[in-house]
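Action item from last meeting closed. Structure (434 res):
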């Protein structure tokens, strides 16, 4: 069911396309077909077999920006090596850190970890700097791992190291990545990084970090694995009698959430379009006074513009927060469905059902990429204009942070497509063998 006044046909109309770049996210996705495909997917009840046991040695993803390591003359990677060595010294066990996200071993371990295919303890250790916060790939990894750790009830596995100062690193920060980092018990190395690597202070800090990793690993090893709750028995779902616990909930959740999520995108699109009216009205005035008026006149105009932008900026921030929450809920449901299909590809009634599902997700990913290209240009323009006036800086700063939240969501779409491609490749392989 779509929101009132919003039809599937409307997504592809010329009028729909005029609503701005955010409309691209939903324009190409046939929502009704998507929901039919989800409803018709019959998933066999299987108990997930863990590919590794809890006795597996702990490991970690050492997530950093290469430019930061170069600026530190290799100290960030050397710190990783020191922690590995100290951990081995104090526990007698090894801990392997994956340090190159382009390496095959990183990719394989990352997929197993995020797909919940591992029972082993795997840390995510981001080396947080101002540059790290700005990198899209770093943001996507941190958000994704945080969601995974929260789902499994192992939040402690996210262990940030604050390597250099980051402004407004607070739990109520409007930037999602900053909020996630500040909600953890991160290690503060902003002063320690200036110490000599052989100094007592530095070695003591390395020891403290290794001890903390060992304590967390031991604590989580003794903690029972979090399983999906079993839904209440319902005698009216014979059509899905073979569906595994929790999957029906995922299907129902997506069916309810998708129209709401689409409506949120519509609202966000309208809010962003509302920005054009005051900008278009004030632009000629600013150009006129720019040639002859004094600085005080220019600032007065900027102040009036800021006053009109503030309520719009507040609406955009509120809507982007709702969008992020809904996107994460969607991800939870879709990830469960894809994981179940991956375990048993024959669980779909018809290959066409999955093909329609995959087409819809790819359209969403591709349209999102187009929208983000437009939003990135807009974000840069917003930052440029904000630098012109302190009064404009506040509303435009809110808008820039809200747009960043939206762009962070693209990582979810990319991950859905990755899982779909793995399912498709697994289906093709046996045919080639035969």
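Sequence:
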């Amino acid at each position: 069911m779509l929101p009132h006044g919003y039809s599937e046909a409307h997504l592809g109309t010329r009028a729909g396309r005029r609503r701005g770049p955010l409309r691209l996210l939903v324009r190409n996705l046939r929502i009704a077909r998507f929901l039919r495909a989800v409803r018709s997917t019959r998933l066999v009840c299987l108990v997930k077999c863990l590919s590794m046991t809890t006795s597996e040695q702990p490991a970690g993803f050492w997530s950093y920006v290469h430019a930061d390591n170069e600026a530190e003359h290799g100290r960030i990677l050397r710190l990783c090596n020191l922690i590995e060595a100290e951990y081995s010294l104090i526990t007698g066990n090894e801990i392997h850190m994956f340090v190159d996200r382009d390496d095959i071993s990183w990719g394989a371990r990352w997929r197993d970890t995020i797909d919940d295919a591992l029972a082993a303890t795997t840390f995510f250790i981001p080396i947080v700097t101002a540059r790290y916060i700005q990198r899209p790939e770093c943001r996507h990894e941190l958000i994704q791992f945080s969601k995974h750790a929260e789902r499994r009830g192992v939040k402690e596995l996210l262990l940030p190291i604050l390597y250099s100062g980051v402004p407004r690193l607070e739990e109520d920060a409007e930037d999602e990545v900053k909020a996630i980092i500040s909600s953890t018990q991160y290690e503060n190395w902003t002063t320690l990084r200036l110490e000599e690597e052989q100094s007592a202070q530095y070695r003591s800090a390395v020891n403290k970090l290794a001890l903390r990793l060992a304590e967390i690993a031991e604590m989580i090893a003794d903690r029972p694995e979090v399983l999906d709750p079993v839904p209440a028995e319902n005698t009216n779902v014979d059509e899905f009698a073979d569906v595994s616990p929790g999957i029906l909930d995922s299907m129902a959740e997506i069916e309810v959430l998708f129209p709401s999520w689409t409506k949120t995108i519509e609202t966000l699109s309208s809010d962003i379009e509302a920005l054009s009216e005051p900008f278009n009205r004030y632009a000629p005035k600013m150009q006129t006074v720019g040639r002859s008026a004094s600085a005080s006149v220019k600032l007065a105009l900027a102040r009036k513009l800021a006053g009109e932008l503030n309520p719009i900026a507040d609406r955009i921030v509120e809507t982007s927060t709702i969008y992020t929450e809904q996107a994460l809920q969607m991800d939870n449901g879709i990830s469960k469905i894809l994981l179940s299909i991956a375990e048993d590809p024959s669980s779909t009634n018809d290959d066409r059902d999955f093909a329609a599902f995959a087409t819809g997700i790819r359209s969403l990913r591709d349209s999102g990429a187009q929208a983000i290209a437009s939003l990135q240009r807009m974000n840069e323009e917003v930052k440029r204009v904000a630098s012109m006036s302190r009064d404009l800086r506040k509303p435009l700063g809110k808008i820039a942070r809200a747009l960043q939240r939206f762009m962070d969501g693209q990582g979810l779409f990319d991950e859905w497509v990755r899982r779909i491609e793995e399912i498709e490749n697994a289906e093709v392989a046996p045919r080639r063998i035969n």
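Note appended to the action item: The radius of gyration is 25 Å.
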